[in-house]
Every structure is written in structure tokens, then in C-alpha cells.
Design a protein that fits this description.
The protein is of the alpha/beta class. It has one domain. The protein has five helices and five strands; from the N terminus they run αββαββαααβ. Strands 1, 2, 3, 4 and 5 form a five-stranded mixed β-sheet that branches. The N and C termini lie far apart (42 Å).
Length: 157
């Protein structure tokens, strides 16, 4: 059940999350005037476990949006297509206080001055990131992997 993760999300604000930037060049070399593909800009403080957890939830949201009930997709803009780069940009965004120790990136945390580490009020336990077993329908498997793609950069970029 996802309700047990409410306590984690109550501690997170938009300023704590990863960002994204638009991909301006399309595959055929034409400039996109309305970028619909975005590269993820990672938040330095987030651990890999937390990033994987949040990206899984993002993927579920995209899949849920595509599985609308009735004749039409939900109103409004579709969820963004966010792609992880092999060598992502990383930004030094604000880190939330009071998270479990495995939510913070260890290397990032170790670089903080001791008083800054104390200010974070880290819970000295690991957070349980387990999610319910949710199997993606076969018809979405091919088109539903967009979020988790890793964009391999070439020397030309």
C-alpha cells in the first residue's frame, strides 16, 4: 500500500526534487519548438535508492495516465517524458530535514560540515522503499519504458 509512504512525501517539497531541462534537438536534427522530452537534472542530496523509488512512482503515474477509463485520455497536458542521462547534470538543491539516513547521498552528506549534518536531523534508520507489486500490462511494456531510458551522450553533443 502506498499510504505508508505519506510520511516521506510530507517531508518533501518541490524545491527538494530533481529538475529537468528540455531536449532542444530532435533525432532528425531539427530544433524542437515545443520540447516534450526532458532530461533529468538530479538533486545532489538524493541517494540512488530514493531516486529509483521516485522514478518508479513517476513511471507508474505515466502508465496510469495512459490507462484512462472510458473513451478519452484525461484532460490537460500529458505527463512529461523525462529521460535519465548516463552522465546527468547535478544541481545543489535544498535538502529536506528529518529524512532517514538512506535517503541522503553518502558522498554528498560526508562533504557537509558537521553543524550542517546536525541541522538535517537525520533519522538514524533506513527507510523502507518497498512498493506494492504492480505488474505493468503487456500492451504498455514497449511504450512505457520511456522514463527509465538512459540517454547515452556522444562526443558530437
Amino acid at each position: 500500500d502506498l499510504v505508508r509512504h505519506k510520511i516521506l512525501f510530507e517531508k518533501l517539497k518541490p524545491s527538494h526534487m530533481s529538475g529537468d531541462e528540455p531536449q532542444f534537438d530532435s533525432e532528425d536534427g531539427e530544433r524542437q519548438t515545443y520540447p516534450r522530452t526532458f532530461f533529468i537534472v538530479e538533486a545532489a542530496w538524493q541517494s540512488k535508492l530514493l531516486k529509483d523509488f521516485l522514478r518508479t512512482l513517476d513511471q507508474w503515474h505515466i502508465e496510469d495516465w495512459h490507462q484512462s477509463i472510458g473513451d478519452r485520455l484525461p484532460g490537460g497536458s500529458p505527463p512529461r517524458i523525462r529521460i535519465a542521462r548516463a552522465n546527468p547534470k547535478v544541481r545543489q538543491s535544498a535538502a529536506p530535514k528529518g529524512l532517514w539516513k538512506n535517503c541522503y547521498d553518502r558522498k554528498w552528506f560526508a562533504k557537509l560540515k558537521p553543524h550542517k549534518q546536525r541541522e538535517l536531523e537525520v533519522i538514524d534508520q533506513d527507510y523502507d522503499f518497498r512498493l506494492p507489486d504492480w505488474t505493468m500490462p503487456e500492451d504498455l511494456k514497449d511504450g512505457g519504458d520511456v522514463l527509465m531510458e538512459v540517454y547515452e551522450e556522444t562526443d558530437e553533443e
